[in-house]
Design a protein that fits this description.
The protein has about 325 residues and is an alpha/beta fold. The protein is built from 12 helices and 10 strands. The strands form 2 sheets. The protein has an 8-stranded parallel β-sheet with strand order 3-4-5-6-7-8-9-10. A two-stranded antiparallel sheet has the order 1-2.
Length: about 325
C-alpha cells in the first residue's frame, strides 16, 4: 500500500490535501553562515511558523521541506512547527550540490559519518554505498539521528555540469531509493542538466516516474520541458513569486504548454522560499501565503480565459500530483 512519510507519521496520500512541493522552513546553511549571508539564513522558528500559519489559514495542508543535510536543516524546529500548526511536513534525506560542500561539517554529524572537516571531504572519502547507507538511515531511522524520518531522498547538480562528487551522490541517492522506496527529488542549477541526471539514475535502475526535478521554471524551454516530461518525471515549477528570474506569465504559459501536450499529471508548483526576503514575517517578502492566496486565483483566471478548467488544473497540480509524487513505492 502506498504511503507518504511525514515528520510524525506515515499516512495515506489522500490526507495530504493542498501541497507545496518544495519549500525551506528553518535552515542555517553552513556555507552561507560562514560567509555571513544573512538573507540566506532562515534562523527564526517563530517567524517561519507565522508564515506556515498563513499557509494553513488559506487552506494549505502539507509542505515538502526540501532541506538536505548539507543545507543546515533545523530538524527539531521544523518538527515543532509541524506539531504546533498541524501542517503535515515531509522531510528530506540526501544532499544538495557540490559548492556547498566547502563548508565545515556540522559537529553533530561527526558521530554519524566520521571525523571529517567538510562535507566535501566526507563525500569524497566515503564510498557510494556508505553514502547510500547514511541516506537510508535518515529515511528509516531519523534525520541526523532525530526521531523524524525523511520522506524523500534528494541530490543536486551545478550549472551546466555534474561534478564527480555530485555523480557520486546521485548514485548513492538512487541506491537509497531502491532500498527504501522513498521518492526522489533533484536540484538543478538554473534548470540545467535534468536529462543528464536522468541518464545516471537509469544506469542505477531507477524508474524515472518516481523522480521530481526542481527549478524547471528557471529554464523556460518548452523543448527541454517536453523531453523531461517524456521520461515520466515530475517537473517542479518552484520559483513562483520570483519575477527577477521570469514573469509569472511565462511560468503559466510553460505549464499550460505541458498541459496541451498531455503532461498535466506530472506538474508540481511551489515557491522554494529559501531567503528571508521571500518570507513575509521576517519583514520582507510575499510569504508562504502568496501562491495559495494570490497566484492560484490568477492561474485559474488565465487558464479559464484560455479555455482550460482552472479549478481542475489547480486540484491536479496541488493535490492529485503530489499524492502520487511523494508516495513511497514499496
Amino acid at each position: 500500500m502506498a504511503f507518504v512519510r511525514t515528520f510524525f507519521k506515515d499516512m495515506d496520500p489522500s490526507e495530504m490535501g493542498f501541497t507545496y512541493s518544495h519549500e525551506h522552513i528553518v535552515c542555517v546553511p553552513p556555507y552561507w553562515s560562514e560567509r555571513q549571508e544573512d538573507d540566506l539564513l532562515l534562523d527564526s522558528r517563530v517567524k517561519s511558523q507565522k508564515d506556515v500559519e498563513d499557509f494553513k489559514e488559506n487552506g494549505g495542508q502539507t509542505i515538502v521541506d526540501a532541506t538536505a543535510v548539507d543545507y543546515g536543516r533545523r530538524v527539531e524546529d521544523v518538527a515543532e512547527i509541524s506539531r504546533e500548526t498541524g501542517i503535515h511536513i515531509i522531510g528530506t534525506a540526501g544532499f544538495n550540490k557540490s559548492f556547498l560542500w566547502k563548508a565545515d561539517l556540522k559537529p553533530t554529524l561527526k558521530s554519524l559519518v566520521g571525523d571529517y572537516r567538510t562535507y566535501g571531504e566526507w563525500i569524497e572519502n566515503a564510498s557510494i554505498n556508505r553514502l547510500a547507507e547514511f541516506v537510508i538511515r535518515e529515511v528509516e531511522e531519523g534525520l541526523e539521528g532525530s526521531a523524524y524520518r525523511g520522506g524523500q531522498v534528494k541530490f543536486g547538480t551545478g550549472y551546466n555540469t555534474i561534478s564527480p562528487l555530485e555523480e557520486k551522490t546521485i548514485r548513492a541517492v538512487a541506491r537509497a531509493h531502491l532500498e527504501t522506496g522513498a521518492p526522489v527529488h533533484s536540484h538543478t542549477e538554473a534548470g540545467t542538466m535534468a536529462l543528464e541526471q536522468i541518464e545516471i539514475l537509469r544506469e542505477e535502475g531507477v524508474n524515472i516516474e518516481y523522480l521530481s526535478i526542481g527549478h524547471m521554471d528557471r529554464n523556460l524551454d518548452p523543448y527541454m520541458h517536453q523531453k523531461v516530461a517524456e521520461t515520466g518525471a515530475f517537473l517542479s515549477f518552484d520559483g513562483i513569486g520570483k519575477v527577477k528570474y521570469a514573469p509569472e506569465s511565462a511560468r503559466i504559459e510553460a505549464i499550460l504548454q505541458l498541459v496541451d501536450k498531455g503532461f498535466e499529471d506530472q506538474i508540481l508548483v511551489s515557491g522554494d522560499t529559501a531567503r528571508k526576503s521571500y518570507y513575509k514575517h521576517y519583514g520582507y517578502g510575499l510569504g508562504l501565503e502568496y501562491i495559495i492566496k494570490k497566484w492560484v486565483p490568477r492561474f485559474k483566471e488565465e487558464a479559464d480565459t484560455k479555455g482550460y478548467d482552472g479549478d481542475k488544473l489547480v486540484r491536479k497540480i496541488f493535490v492529485d500530483n503530489p499524492q502520487r509524487c511523494f508516495a513511497f513505492k514499496k
